[in-house]
């Protein structure tokens, strides 16, 4: 349980449903993310993601205050399936920061 004065993790998840983040406007993505001020946010992308290329992920991360960016090597769009150990390591590092 999170203490009342502790910001919750930002619910970024998989933004855009069937539409890639590269096809959506940045304000739309951020509005959908509903990032809370002071919340931790991680933008995670595969280095070979054709739907949301790393440059686009960097734009998204740069637009979120204090967001972190993790680029998973040797990975396309399905990072949790393609490189689960690397994704878990990136999440653990981010969560402990």
What is the end-to-end distance? 19 Å
- Helix count equals 4
Strand order of the largest sheet: 1-2
| CATH class descriptor | Alpha Beta
Major sheet: 2 strands, parallel
Mean pLDDT: 78
Oligomer: single chain
Which structural class matches the secondary elements?
alpha+beta
Number of strands: 2
CATH architecture assignment name: 3-Layer(aba) Sandwich
Strand content: 5-15%
Instruction: Estimate the helix proportion, in percent.
Output: 25-40%
> Rough shape?
globular
CATH-defined topology: Rossmann fold
For CATH, the homologous superfamily is named as Alpha/Beta hydrolase fold, catalytic domain
Radius of gyration from the CA trace? Answer: 13 Å
Low-confidence stretches: 6-17
What's the SSE pattern?
A: HEHEHH
Description of the molecule:
This protein starts with 25 loop residues before the first helix and ends with a helix. The relative contact order is 0.17. It is an alpha+beta fold. It has a single domain, classed as Alpha/Beta hydrolase fold, catalytic domain (Rossmann fold). Strand 1 (42-46), helix 2 (54-63) and strand 2 form a beta-alpha-beta unit. The protein has four helices and two strands, in the order H-E-H-E-H-H. A two-stranded parallel ribbon has the order 1-2.
């Amino acid at each position: 349980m999170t203490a009342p004065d502790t910001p919750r993790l930002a619910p970024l998840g998989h933004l855009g449903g069937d539409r890639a983040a590269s096809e959506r406007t940045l304000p739309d993505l951020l509005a959908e993310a509903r990032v809370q001020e002071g919340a931790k946010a991680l933008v995670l992308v595969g280095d070979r993601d054709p739907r949301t290329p790393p440059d686009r992920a960097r734009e998204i991360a740069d637009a979120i205050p204090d967001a972190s960016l993790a680029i998973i090597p040797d990975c396309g769009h399905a990072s949790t399936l393609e490189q689960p150990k690397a994704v878990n390591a990136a999440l653990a590092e981010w969560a402990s920061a």
